[in-house]
Specification:
The structure holds 2 protein chains of 2 kinds. Chain A is an alpha/beta fold. Chain A contains 8 helices and 5 strands, in the order H-E-H-E-E-H-E-H-E-H-H-H-H. Chain A has a single domain, classed as Rossmann fold (3-Layer(aba) Sandwich). The chains are: A alpha/beta, B mainly alpha. At the A-B interface, helix 1 of A face helix 2 of B.
Chain lengths: 193, 295
């Protein structure tokens, strides 16, 4: 078999994988912020997100999406990072509400972080304070399209630019240890040679 | 021919199990006035889980445990009487089948022990505690039905003793056994009043907490087979088995009924669940057993 054919086959399989990933997404909520109050109507009978195959999941090992609803205090940021690193790739992060974008109404707070994507890579943001269920569903549909196109690759960015992320994390949290060997994982996933 | 028959049997039971999982999602959604995920959702879930690039293993025992789990379930699949696949199935005692059903929990316990997640340990200890409830019940029911079928514990004989129309089904002749068996079935499958093992939002997902990606995919496959076997035991014991079409139709019917119970109930605590089994279903089963013996 020629090399091109193998590449074609690989691309075809990747396409199939992405299609499947799109149909089944389990999300882990990190609901310290007030935005979480909009999630129950989104999940239950009125707007029913499970139509798209999006379902809640309770452990990071099994989840595909990490949903950060609202502000993150500096202390809870560390837990988010630990949780994020425990998830298995491919994984996606959704920043939910204005607080994750620019601090929102906590823009001058001393104890919250202002922009989530400085600390972990974010695939999409859903703006609003707080976003309505329609906005959440639209946001998820955008994410599904991105997954389908193969452009939702923020998780790779974490491995490639780990130094930058780690620097920002340490700036806020001080030196701390995570149990995940990022360099080894990056080699495992074939992101970094 | 035997091998082909066996493969077809595997395929049929797997597909039925996945359809049952889909039905479960759909029924839950419809009762809650939702549209719900498509009935194909478990297929997508499993394929997605197998396409994950899992890199997390906690050691050799965890890898083995998943295989033991699936292997034990597949083994018990071939002890479930089914007339269409009669040459493949090793017809045996019902006691053997009930014994083999313990394998998956033990396999799981080994894997969870290696993973050393506290939620997992709590979950597996709950799962093994629940055995003290439903396993006694189902054993009394099975032995009672065996006595009723002229004292043989040979499972196909219990099934064939109900041949000849629904009027001969055990569910009509031994209704107390049927009630106890149904409750035991809820416990075996971990449906909601007895959902203490996999208690989402309480102990994460119980024993499965540390299993992600391909491991979880294997557990989903196992779950599909387990649904087919455990509901199949109930159908064989009480609803007269039947040919392959009616067998699957009965399985789906019983499973939908199970789901209705599952949706409307809240969760027992572990000790409450075991106490419930010893208070009601076991008493019912014992009463019927006495009736069967002295009749």
């Amino acid at each position: 078999m020629s090399n091109k054919k193998i590449v074609d086959q690989k691309a075809a399989w990747n396409h199939v994988y992405r299609r499947l990933n799109k149909r089944s997404l389990w999300m882990l909520h990190y609901c310290t912020g007030c935005g979480a109050v909009e999630l129950p109507p989104t999940m239950t009978s009125r707007w029913d997100m499970s139509r798209f195959g999006v379902a809640p999941m309770v452990t990071p090992r099994q989840a595909d999406i990490l949903l950060i609803t609202g502000y993150l205090a500096k202390k809870s940021l560390k837990r988010v990072i630990l949780t994020y690193e425990q998830m298995q790739s491919p994984k996606w992060v959704v920043g939910f509400g204005s607080c994750t974008i620019n601090g929102g109404m906590y823009w001058d707070s001393y104890s919250t972080i202002k922009q989530l994507s400085e600390y972990i890579p974010v695939d999409i943001y859903i703006a609003g304070c707080m976003p309505q269920p329609e906005a959440i569903i639209h946001g998820f549909n955008v994410l599904l399209d991105k997954i389908n196109n193969g452009t939702a690759n923020a998780w790779k960015d974490y491995y490639i630019n780990y130094k930058k992320y780690r620097e920002n994390q340490v700036k806020v949290l001080g030196e701390f240890v995570t149990n995940t060997d990022i360099e080894k994982e990056a080699r495992y996933y074939g992101v970094v040679k | 021919m035997v091998i082909l028959n066996g493969l077809i049997y595997l395929l049929v039971s797997f597909v039925t199990g996945l359809i049952l999982m889909g039905i479960s999602l759909k029924v839950t959604a419809r009762v809650q006035k939702r549209i719900g995920p498509p009935i194909m959702q478990p297929w997508f879930d499993i394929l997605k889980l197998f396409s994950k690039k899992t890199n997390i293993s906690h050691g050799y025992m965890m890898d083995i445990s998943v295989l033991m789990l699936l292997g034990g379930t597949l083994l018990s699949l071939f002890f479930l009487p089914n007339p269409y696949f009669a040459h493949t199935i090793y017809a045996a005692d019902i006691i053997v089948l009930l014994y083999l059903l313990l394998f998956p929990s033990l396999g799981m316990a080994m894997g969870v022990g290696e993973a050393a997640n506290p939620n997992g340990s709590i979950g597996i200890s709950r799962a093994l505690t629940m055995l003290a409830g439903y396993d006694f019940t189902i054993t009394i029911v099975a032995v009672g039905l065996a006595i009723a079928a002229n004292g043989i514990t040979y499972f196909p004989a219990i099934v064939s003793s109900q041949a000849g129309g629904f009027i001969h089904w055990n569910i009509l002749h031994y209704p107390l056994f049927a009630i106890a068996g149904f409750i035991a079935l809820l416990g075996m499958l971990g449906e909601k009043p007895f959902e203490v093992m996999v208690a989402p939002h309480e102990i994460a997902t119980g024993p499965m907490t540390e299993f992600g990606g391909k491991y979880l995919g294997m557990l989903f496959v196992q779950h599909a087979f387990a649904l087919f076997i455990e509901v199949g035991i109930f159908v064989n014991l009480f609803l007269g088995g039947g040919n392959i079409y009616s067998f699957i139709a009965k399985i789906i019917g019983v499973f939908i009924l199970l789901n209705f119970v599952n949706i409307v109930f809240a969760r027992f605590k572990t000790e409450e669940a075991v106490a419930f089994f010893w208070k009601y279903p076991i008493i019912l089963a014992m009463l019927q057993l006495i009736w069967v013996v002295i009749r």
